[in-house]
Design a protein that fits this description.
By secondary structure, this protein is of the alpha+beta class. The protein contains 18 helices and 36 strands. The strands form six sheets. A ten-stranded mixed β-sheet has the order 24-23-22-25-26-27-28-34-35-36. The longest helix has 16 residues.
Length: 736
Amino acid sequence: MFTSQDDWNSGYAKGRGYRPFDAGERELLAQHAPAPESGRALDVGCGTGELALHLASMGYTVDALDWADSALAAAETPPEASVRWLHLNIERDNLKPLKPGGYDLITLRMVYAFMRDRTRLARTLGRRLRKNGALVVITPLAAPTPAERRGIALDEDEIAHLMSMWDQAQRFAANGMAVLVLRGLKKAAVQIAHAPCPQPSSVTGVHAVVTDADGRVRLSRSAQQVWDLPGGPTAPGEGFEHTAVRALAEQTGVAADPVDAHVLGLLLDAPDSLPRTSVVGGCPPGPLAGRRCVMTQLNTGGSTEAGPATPVPHEPRTAVPAPAGPEVGAPVPAAARDPQVAAARAAMVARLEEAGELVAGPVRDALFALPREVLMPQAYVRRSAPDEPPRWDLLDWSRPADRDELLRLLHSGDSVSVQHAGEPILGRVPGRRSGGSMTAMSSTMGMTAGLLQLLDLRRGQRVLDVGTGAGVAVAVACFVCGDYDVVTLDIDRHVSEAARARLLALGYRPTVATGDGTAGWPETAPYDRIFVSFSVPRVPPALVAQLAPGGRALMTLGTSSPSWPGLAVINRTGTGAVEAELVAVEFGHRGGAGFDRLFLSAEFRKRIAISEGDWTQRSRLEPPADTERGMWLALDHLYPGLVRDFGADDLTIGAPGCGSWMRARSAGYRRWEVTTAGPRDIWAEIHDVADRWRAAGSPHRYRLEIDSGRAQRVTTSCGTLAWPLNDPPRTHGDAQ
């Protein structure tokens, strides 16, 4: 039985055949998974593509993936078939090459039994299904399979377990195999089980709860109004009691004896998940010097506060007078304790963690604790299609009819629009808006979380947040660093006024200023961390000047095209030298005020999709992969004025300024049909930069040179690929 990628590659290369896809399977797919309009399908483990091509003939647009190069090389795509071949390991590789927006059908034919972590894979794929979408698993059965080939099949218990994970599970038979049609992935329930201490492992963590002699729990409370529960991962060979006592001492200074600690219970994510566990241990109390604590009676739930007197908060340095805020130690707003809201916030954090965009640390703690509905009690939802005149509804948390939709919007992880056409934010009336554009928003949570983690925020740092928006980044900075040395700056006074009021509702009083973000805020400089929430064409010199020794600044650096952003990472060493790099990234912030952006109009995109162009050729030159972001970043600067239509099925790029465009469609494995139009040969431009980029070592990180004057330059370490950073012309970018 094949167990490695080399085995599969060798088998397909030798022409090894596998069980053919038969009429019975076709009939079941036609009956139980017909293609809806604009239906998308994903065929996992596609082999030479027999099933993928059948799905295309049913009307699906198909992504077909396999980890065997030789299988994909043998796949032939008829001109009329809409199939995209992907070389991916479904369990180990980054799945970002898959189409966003999900699939109506996902198939695993004679594949599921080979997966190392079947449950995790089923849940991963289930979350990529569209509404009413189906996961179809076609598998041999263990009973009739010879013992030496048992690994290719599922037994009845394994099938029953897989079916139990879905709201709707149907089982059929075809070609001597079981055909499972699964819909509606069930949520994994949290289970609490009392059990003896298992052996420690790298995915086991311990939390310590301190009790007094009467069984009352003592929990310290931080200035951010959240409970501090000390804990950490177990070390190899270390018992849970020792971990709890060690973490308690390291994080609070409270000493306890492992002999006096005992395990209260195990918390399991779900019975079918990886063995991530949290263990609660109890220890006798020690002095919690300088820390506020709460004594909670376990059997009654009653509590009393104890500890040192509440410290007097520092007087904040604000750009305008701020109203008096709540004392340190005041409770989080009641909305933050709403179970439904807390569950939505926890689910958002869990999705970010699963996507690899958020890890354990202070940023994760902040996103888990901060009530987004306090920062964004009103938000816009678009009611019109992207190419229609915009119509928006302003939802309001205080209106019961809006609350469910707003709850989903705030915790979806998507960007959230909070200001329309520069309007005043405080005191506005909810309802319909038409025309105009959104002028302030909260960025997508995945991008924000990643950037804030890279910023490496720490307690006591001086932070400048440029581009306040909805206030999420500055709220995280206040949570992690404390609000006394945090400044947030926005060019729109209405945005600043709203942020000040909403941060105050959370108990934070940072400096909230209005002004040009590229000029920074010299009054309280220098800063240990600078975070810019809008795209700039070049690094603002004022922000570099306001960066303290040992400090770091992050900002999106881009051209007038929104397609291929770069992340500028600027560090000032302890000796005062500036070291900077430009990193090619998938997502970046939008351009700030006065930064005109190119775009492809609906008319232009339609013309590209249906036009025959000036000429069409067949090419064996493969376009650079989406993941080769360093190349696309260089293209954006060396051949400016290009915009990619990421919503198109094919590689589609236009030049709005002159009306040129190109379209590249897959015509089989490593064969492309390229159509171009207009005065620019965009296909040639792409390959010119690709050749130069590969000759320079295929970098994704570039050196960013910033001199003491205004000159700025991006270059590779060897200097063979370089370009200057200039201020872009202020021209509007729709195609004629």
